[in-house]
Amino acid sequence: MKVDRIENYKKLQDLRKSKLIVYVTGDRPGMETQIHPEILEYFVDHLDPLGKVDKISLLLYTRGGNTLAAWSLVNLIRQFCKEFEVIIPSKAQSSGTLISIGANTVVMTKQATLGPIDPSLNGPLNPQNPQVPQNPMARLPVSVESIKGYFELAKDDLKIGSEHELVQVLLSLSEKVHPLVLGDVYRSRTQIQMLARKLLSKQIVDKAPAIPNLSNIRNPFGISA
User: I need a labelling partner for 113 at 20 to 30 A (CA). Which of 87, 89, 94, 191 fits?
Assistant: First the structure.
């Protein structure tokens, strides 16, 4: 099976006229892995023997992970090639989508999917996972987009509009999610906007207003300073 897979990789490399690197993160229950800064050293081990080449194709399957690691990976690969291509057979979600934004070319199958750049924050201050009561250290991941969606629900569906009411919504949320985690959510969201804009700016030749000024986007909580 491994021999067949390697043979297929060689055929794909010849077809794309490039040097192929394969990066897969697991999503089977109990075997989940994510894009992580530790991968950079492993990529260097593969890239150094290649040296500078005309084109590198990254065959990518991932549900996401660390956004700064994705940003760093794009910049690392670009040091070794004139053209960077991402091939997506199935999923390149969240930080995988960020990597794809940084490529010159994205090749996708008919069933391949991208997704919102929506990392989940994991840390010791996250809410405890009620499904694992026997492990008090088990924590629930906090989705950046879920926090934003909570405030949009309050404003759009529940018609909560005044600053005082929105502050009460924030205070109520902070009783469930630690305030420092909420701060990390805001920092992560603004970081995502900055990284995506920088990667897109490298791909667009026409400097007309094709890239929005993300600095004008209101903060994810919708509360004025």
Answer: 191
Residue with tokens 């999923």: 91
Q: What is the DSSP string of 137-163?
A: T-B--EEHHHHHHHHHIIIIIS---SH
Largest Cα–Cα distance of the chain, in whole Å?
64
Cβ proximity of 146 and 173 under 8 Å: no
Three-state secondary-structure class, residue 91 = strand
Can you give the pTM of this predicted structure?
A: 0.71
**Assigned token pair, 160:** 């909560």
Which structural domains are found in the chain, ordered by start?
2-117 (3.90.226.10), 119-225 (no CATH)
Beta strands in 157-225 (DSSP E): none
Q: Amino acid letter at 192?
A: I
Of the ranges 98-107, 133-142, 163-172, the best mean pLDDT one: 98-107
Map tokens 């986007």 to a residue: 217
